[in-house]
Amino acid sequence: MRHTPAFLMTDPEEVRRLVRAHPWATIVSATAEGLVASHYPFLLEDPGDDATEITLVSHVGRPDEVAHELGRHEVLVIVQGPHGYVSPAWYPAQQFVPTWNHVTAHLWGTPEILSDEENFRVLGELVDHFERRMPSPVGLDVDEDAARRIARGTVGIRIRVTRFEARAKLSQNKAPEVVDDVIAGLESPGPYGHPALAAEMRRVRDRATAAPDPEDRPAPEPAPGTDRT
C-alpha cells in the first residue's frame, strides 16, 4: 500500500471502526500452490484493556481451510471501506486530474483454528450481529440441531492482528473549499454520487479540524526544582 503521510491511518480504533462498518473482507494467503483469495464476513472481538489490539473472528466454508493452509502461516485480510471516483469537474479550473478516494486497511496475522463449539458460538454471534437490524430477528436457536449440522461445513478462525497498514485518502491534500465541493459532488444524484463516501470525508475533515494544533498546546509544566526560564 502506498504510504502518503497525509492519508495514513494509524489509530487502531479507526481500523476497528472500519471493520465494524464494512465486515465483508478478503483473505489472501501465499500457499505452496500459489496465491489464494476468499471473501467472508468478519467480527471484532472485544479488545479488553488493550486499546491497540485488533482481533478478528470469522469462518470459512470447507475446504477453504485446506486451500488457504490456515493455521500454518500468516494471511492478509483486506477491508475496503467507502470508495469512489472524484471528478475534476468538482475542482477549480486549473486542476484537471481525477482521482479515486477510498478507505482501506490491510491486516496481517496467523489464523487460529477454533474448536467446533467455539465456531458455533461465533457463527451465532455473526448471525445475531446482522439480524439485529431486522424487525423480527432470526437466530440459530430457531433450530439449533439443524444449525449445528450445517455448521460442520465450516471452520472457525480467529486472527490476532500483528500489524496493519491503513489508508484514508479523502482529499486531505486539497484546500478546504475544494474538499467542500468534492463532498457536494458526491452528495449529488449524478453518475458519481456516493453519499457514504461524502459522509466519511466530512467526518474525517471535521475530526481533523477539531483536533488541537500541537503548536497551540500549552507547554508542560517543568518538574519541581527545575529552571523555568
Computed Rg: 22 Å
Question: What name goes with the CATH superfamily of the domain at 5-83 and 99-173?
Answer: Electron Transport, Fmn-binding Protein, Chain A
Q: Largest beta sheet: what is the strand line-up? A: 2-1-5-6-9
Please, how many helices? 6
- Main pleated sheet: 5 strands, antiparallel
Low-confidence sequence ranges: 216-229
Overall form: elongated
Give the beta-strand count: 9
Portion of residues within helices? 25-40%
What is the H/E string? HEEEEHEEEHHEEHH
Percent strand: 25-35%
Class of secondary structure makeup: alpha+beta
The name CATH uses for the topology of the domain at 5-83 and 99-173 is Pnp Oxidase, Chain A
For the residues shown, what is the average pLDDT?
Answer: 92
CATH class of the domain at 5-83 and 99-173: Mainly Beta
The CATH architecture designation of the domain at 5-83 and 99-173 is Roll
End-to-end separation: 46 Å
